[in-house]
Amino acid sequence: MNDAPLIVHLIYRLDFGGLETLLVERINRMPASAYRHAIVCLTDFNPAFARKIMRADVTIHALHKQPGQSPGTHVALWRLLRGLRPAVLHSYNLSAVEYGPAALLAGVPVRVNGAHGRDHDDPHGTNRKHNALRRLMVPFYDCCYANSAAMDTWNRDVIGVPAHKSRMLANGIDAERFRPHAPGEVALPEHWPFEPGHLVIGTVGRIQAVKDHAALIDAFALLRARLPHLPLRLAIVGDGPLLETMRSKVAGLGLNDVAWLPGARTDIAQILGSLHVFAMSSIAEGTPGSALEAMASALPVVGTRVGGIPEVIDDGVTGMLVPPSDPEAMAAALARYAVSPELVARHGAAGRERVLCNYSMTAMVAAYQGMYDSLCERKIKTRGAVTSCAE
């Protein structure tokens, strides 16, 4: 029987997405002798995505939270935590930050909240109500980390997270899985609609407002108008609440024959290996895992100058940065790659080298385990008792 300390990961919903993918990677890669894991979903989970978890001892719980305040969810979580008796509660983003008090009342010794990005309705973190909640919750957590330097600075300067509770934990990428492939080395993805001679611009991520796929579609339409002689194609891969809206937009612009929106896919590495350029049109981001996966696959990345994207993309070296919600600027950047295969190859190679040097999966897992180790050592082993959340 494994008596390693239990970590409960509290997340809004377990489904296809960057944050969720890296959560599963950390669970799969962290030594079983170090920590056990359970995932608590405030709403629900996607069974297809849950199958990515390779450890048989990981349990998943769904609280089926309804929209709004839902005070009963706090009680349900408290009861669940009392039964699970974890050493660590690790909550993710604003949607789960308010449950720190329930974890304290349930006797969870170590409580951690991670800032992995912002919502589309508050891309710059200026919502007073949201920030007041974040400030109110800081005393209930032992660590409030961020996954980008920009978010970490905002945590400290705007939310007031003290230095001893602040950390920056960068995302990591599996550079063996995401890597460039020689022509013909890997078969094309299933149902891939494009021909070998097509120049495919693509993106991968949840289809939601914060990703602003509408701007990318508009940019692609502008690009085709500028370069009508090139066989340009667009792939937008991912599921989400705006998938049908984006499909309708594509149809309305007459792009059905040149754009592909297949929904959620499990063969992302294979899809990235079939692209030529990667694009990110987000209006807010933490450290963008999808951009790092693209860079590991030796793709140049055109991304918006928001959040942690400029920390990842070296402008003019591994890709290009453009203003958010500016289809004209994105089309201009994409056009530079469309007419220069040499630039695509040079920036793509530089991007992979940057990932290998700065964003390894091994380093990410070690950093998270180090955080858990140090907090558990201070809060549990050394003192042998639960300490005040306000220390």
TrEMBL record:
It comes from the Bacteria. GO terms for molecular function: glycosyltransferase activity. Residues 16-177 form the Glycosyltransferase subfamily 4-like N-terminal domain. The keyword Cell membrane does not apply. Keywords: Transferase. The keyword Membrane does not apply. InterPro entries: Glyco_trans_4-like_N (IPR028098), Glycosyltransferase_grp1 (IPR050194), Sugar_tfrase_PEP-CTERM_Stp2 (IPR017522). SUPFAM superfamilies: UDP-Glycosyltransferase/glycogen phosphorylase. Coiled coil: none annotated. It holds the Pfam family Glyco_transf_4. PANTHER family: SULFOQUINOVOSYL TRANSFERASE SQD2. This is TIGR03088 family PEP-CTERM/XrtA system glycosyltransferase. It comes from Pseudoduganella lutea. The lineage of its organism: Bacteria, Pseudomonadati, Pseudomonadota, Betaproteobacteria, Burkholderiales.
